[in-house]
Amino acid sequence: MIGLRLRRAEATEEATGGLLSYTDWARRDIKWLFGSAQVLLLVLLVLIGLGPLVWLAKGAVTPTIDTLRNPLALFPHGVAWSNLSDAWSKVNVGRYFWNTIVLALGSWFCQIVVATTGAFVLSVLRPAWGRFVSALLLGTLFVPVVVLIVPLYIEVVHPPLIHHSFAESYWAIWLPAGASAFNVVLMKRFFDNLPQELFEAARIDGAGPIRLFWSIVLPLSKPILGVVSIFAILAEWKNFLWPFLVLTNSPDRQPLSVRLPAIQAQTQLGVLLASMLIAALVPIVGFLIFQRSFLRGSGFGGALKG
Amino acid sequence: MLAIFTAFSWYPITRLVVLSVQHTNLIDPPTWVGLQNFRDVIGDPLFATAVKNTAYFAALALLFGYPIPLIAAVLISESRRFRGIYSGLAYLPVVIPPVVGVMLWKYVFYEPSSVGLFNTVLGWFHLGPYGWLQSPGTAMPALVVESTWANAGATVIIYLAALTAVDTDLYDAASVDGAGLWHKIWHITLPQLRGVLLITLILQIIGTAQVFLEPFLFTSGGPANATLTVLLLVYQYAFGNSVGVGFGDAAALSLMLAAFLAVFSLVFMRATRSWSTR
């Protein structure tokens, strides 16, 4: 299927010129130079992009002793599938895996609810105070989230008004995840571009704001919902520092990213590598399935890093 | 939505400012100390070390991580047949969870004994073994190499998207006028990418100024504080000793970092405005 898509892209591209014109491609020196640079790049990309992952997969099913003796040897003493099962059950990776899923889904849900409803209010309902809130939202984009860990930590451990610590609870991760100004801005921009006539027509037909949101705006926003969802889940899967801080004392509730460094010292290398492979598998499979959204959406995702 | 943002964005921002002028330990009522925390932080010899290290990390990351994705993207975008495979390969490290990436590099690639992966390869040429993360000279570059591996793919994708927007008629016109390959790259491709190049530059500087995970997991700031970065120092102030005592200092340092980045981005955008949109 990927092949098909590529061929179609190729066909359209052939019509337009690229950096190299056809006369350029016909010139032998340039063809040779650019061609060999591309082959070199392919080799490098396979080595750098795929290499570490392939090695990890190999290390995950190689007996520890072999990996320790020569990391580049190919299964001198057979394959140790037991690494994977040991990791899953003995080192409890199965449990941490589940924790990670629960954390990711909760954060995803929170982000989607906040982003869609917030953007809906700001973009479609447009209350008088909307401009003020939008300005505040844009302002928070300038504050890197990571500098807020100290006040956020204090807030979660000693919340104002409520005398109940949220430390060691998943709520401490789910709820703050929702406060992503970036998601709201992205979603709002998408809603702004939806045809306004639809909203007018629905209003005339007597649809209230809730119905407008549920039956018109949400179904129209599937593409942007997909992109935000993918990046929300991936971000939580990668998250380390915040769960590390707020779930410090409950190892049984920690996600993989927090547990892996913790179990390193008392786990033999083969089993550790198997655990790492398991942790990397979900994002990689997700990437292979949703490659298109990833590669198109990462323009936003890259901006998110700032 | 308002509740979530008030609770987890606007309130913490306000609280950060308040904390930076308080002494607090979460038990006794906080006391106001004015700018004492800022003075403490600036007077701390580790502060200068952390700032220097972070700047060093950012400079190295620019050196490795800025030109490579651009060259890769230009080459990839010319490959009509394999573009999807190229960009997929380049992006793959980005989706690997950072903790897994760091651990893989730390315990396998940078393993200091002769069976570390890099040391094994160097061993074929009778070099090493080297303690990549154990010597103050190589620790920081080692971190930057891993970090570039983990992040460059995202930048490649941004450039690829920007390259498709380059007006191809210009290339054709230039070819007709007899312009060579380098001329076209220098006079058409790069100028057309100007805006994106500036954005990725500022994003990369902002991102590397906040580097935490790599030094935290690889080296905990060692050896001899050679990889102690600003955010790692924030972490050590806040959670390093007994939790709570250093919250004021941590908040002061966080605030300085945030203020520096905000001012830096504004100045950067102002300075390059005329240049990026001509």
Verbal overview:
The complex is a heterodimer of chains A (306) and B (278). Chain A has two domains: 16-80, no CATH class; 87-304, MetI-like fold. Mean pLDDT of chain A is 80; it is low at 1-16 and 299-306. Chain A is built from 17 helices and no strands. The radius of gyration of chain A is 25 Å and the shape is flat. Chain A is 74% helix and 0% strand. In chain A, α3 packs across α16 (269-289) and α6 (93-125) packs parallel to α9 (171-178). Chain A is mostly helical. Chain B is mainly α and 278 residues long. Chain B has one domain (49-276): MetI-like fold (Orthogonal Bundle). Chain B contains 13 helices and two strands. Chain B has helices at 2-20, 36-43, 45-65, 67-78, 83-95, 98-109, 117-124, 136-164, 168-176, 181-209, 213-219, 230-240, 247-276; strands at residues 22-23, 31-32. In chain B, strands 1-2 form a two-stranded antiparallel ribbon. In chain B, β1 and β2 form a beta hairpin. In chain B, α8 packs across α10. At the A-B interface, α1, α3, α6, α7 and α8 of A face α1, α4, α5, α6 and α7 of B.
Note the beta-strand portion of chain B: under 5%
Low-confidence stretches of chain A: 1-16, 299-306
In helices, the fraction of residues of chain B equals: over 70%
CATH domain topology of chain B: MetI-like fold
Radius of gyration from the alpha-carbon trace of chain B, in angstroms: 23 Å
Total helical elements of chain A: 17
Percent in strands of chain A: under 5%
Which word captures the global form of chain A?
A: flat
Secondary-structure element order of chain A, as H and E?
A: HHHHHHHHHHHHHHHHH
Poorly predicted regions of chain B are: none
The most extensive interface, with participating residues per chain, is: A-B, 100 and 100 residues
